[in-house]
Amino acid sequence: MSQDLPTLSHSSKREYLLAQIRHKDQMIESLLKQLHNPYTATPLSISAFKTATSPSDKDNVKIVDWMDRLQSSTKPPTQPCPSRMEMLRELRDTHNNAGGVGDNSMEDSDEIEEGDETTEGEETEKVRGTLPDAAVPIGLLASLSLDKDKGKGRASQSAGTPSTNTKLEEDDDNVGVANKEYFMPGLANNLNIRKNLIEQHSPPDIVLHGLVTAADVEKLFEIFWGKINPFISLLDRKIHTPTTIFQRCPFLFTVICAISSRYYDKPEIYPVAMHFAKHAAANALIDGWKSVELCQAYILMSLYTVPARRWEEDRSWLYTGLAIRIATDLSLHQVSEIRPTTERQERELLNRIRVWMICFNLDRSTATQFGKPSTIKEDYIIRNANWYKKSPHNDKYDIHLCGYTALLRIVAQFHDDVFSDPDSPTGLNRSIDFLTVTLEHDNRLTLYFDEWTKRFNEDSDHTDPGSAFRCKLLPFLVNYSRLVMYSFGFQHAFQRGMESNDQVFLEKCFDAATAVIEHVVEVLAPSGFMRSSPDGHFVFASFASAFLLKLLRPEFAQFLTHKMEDEIFESISRLITTLQELAIDERHTPHLYARFLASLLTKHRKGGAGVGGHPQSQPPASQSAHKPSTQPRGYGGQQYISSPSRLQYSGLSSQDSSYPRYDSDNMQMNGSPFPGTSRSPPPATTPPMPAANAPGPEYLGEPGMDDMLTDIGALASMRALNDVWWGNMMMPG
């Protein structure tokens, strides 16, 4: 500070510092008031309130006074902030100078493009596509209202007289369905009006507070396109430029910058940006425009949320539900009958379909993982496996999206066959022949794998690194699905008592689980993409590892060979090493799963003997230490130095599970670990079938699984591996 004020006297410096402290205190007090005041108005809510105010109320002194108080409570005022307008100009200039990776013609423009003008009839048909179907009551009302207004509009124009509805428009009670414009699109559907409102009243907090510059934004978006979008294929680079997203949905802009900053060379951005993203997620639900971009933002939040140390704090499932509800509210599940006349319009329609398919995939995969009922039913869009060929403007990742959707349909049909007993509380049908049903669907998985391997070879862009990586995910996902299927029959056999002909379930589960782990270690991790993977891929590998450890029960000693036991320990050891090498720091998801698996493996290795009664050898020396060249790096790319909590895998002891614990809320804001975690109930899962011969928590030794999960500060998703789960042979969920 002395260098900043070389010409000031000692007293002047003191006064200056005190003034700075007072200024910061005022800012903190203002932020705390906003945080704890649920009635704080926002500019968008004021704009909506003004629009809804009736003519008579506009002259009411009390209403006018209240509006003035609302307006004065918001920051900034109606004039555009120079800093954010400068940000927009810099984004446009940077984008233009970059050579147009995203086509500038696809950005939102203040001018109406050629071919974008619509007649009244065309506008009405566009509105119908976003409203409920005419077969339902509210849809019928909307259809009748639009038809009536369209007819009156033509009659007025032909007669050359003003509309007869002028009087109705001035009526104070002209609200709800009585308003002829009730079913017509509002300001949110006009991109230019929405853009101006957002620029003036609702800029992203990360811009408003100067957390990122225009140069940062460009780099963060490049990180998103190169490292994150290949996993989810959520956005179209042609229409989703930084400028366009800034003007359409500040929430999505914030989320993209926040998630990408995890892999950026400025470590200080990520924790604060994620705080802004969570805050924006709450505000957008109340005041944000209902749009496809809002749905996309919640999808990203569900996939890349900050790890929670308690299940009750995890919001990923809720974010998924919000995305699905918004998508349904926008009628993304309905096939549009509008024929696009420009490339921009066609890309917008493809974007809507793509988001709906991602919602379906996310719904089915997370429902299986968490043991929840799925929300979205199959429809025409979901069943159309050739959608990726629909248009020359389809994204290069659409083929893989269709392939994953087809896989989830097979898994869903298997679940429908297994949970087909209407008289069972859980729906599980114990009277079916599990082997026959599972073999039938396993055969479908094999046919699916052959078909989509051929499609990927013929239609996927093998010159694109992201496309090549998405093709590599196919064996990983198919083997995990196969493991889930065979675990049902395995549990059924385990419940009634294992017989010699039940060995097929054990062998199939063993082969599928080891294949999942091997593919992560030998194929996915070396690709260079897994460091920025969503949590789901690490969850699958961790669940497969935990399932393999359940095979070490004494009951399966007669079915499990010494070689198979060695392979279990070796596979999980290699996975732990791989996850550690993928981790950016000790709070990164791969490292948390590595700690969890290492603690599990330690408990099974106590005394150096396998649970099945065979002595266990230690993993090869080549797998017991990290190579310096593959050390994870910190937020800003700094070398991540090994610490005592970083597991060196050369024979673990029980004391190795004493690792520091992290509070995700605290570490999110200040980046430092806070000790102390409390136990919380596991997630709601499908009640397992009780096994008479199933050992209790003492099978893993004391303390129980809940205690162990708390001790190592494991991720909330791992709460599915509770003490009850270890008493059966099911997969989580």
How is this structure best summarized?
With 733 residues, the protein is an all-alpha fold. The protein is built from 27 helices and no strands.
Q: What does this entry look like structurally?
A:
The structure is a single chain. This protein has 733 residues and is mostly helical. The chain has five domains: 1-29; 41-74, no CATH class; 132-178; 187-383, no CATH class; 396-727, no CATH class. The protein is 55% helix and 0% strand. The chain contains 27 helices and no strands. The chain has helices spanning 10-36, 43-52, 55-58, 61-72, 82-97, 120-130, 137-159, 166-169, 191-201, 205-208, 214-232, 242-248, 250-260, 269-287, 292-303, 316-329, 343-370, 380-383, 398-418, 434-459, 465-496, 503-524, 535-550, 562-582, 589-604, 664-670, 705-712. Helix 17 (343-370) packs parallel to helix 19. The longest helix has 32 residues, at 465-496. The radius of gyration is 29 Å and the shape is globular. The chain starts with 9 loop residues before the first helix and ends in a 21-residue tail after the last helix. Residues 35-46, 73-80, 100-105, 110-122, 153-170 and 607-703 have low confidence and may be disordered.
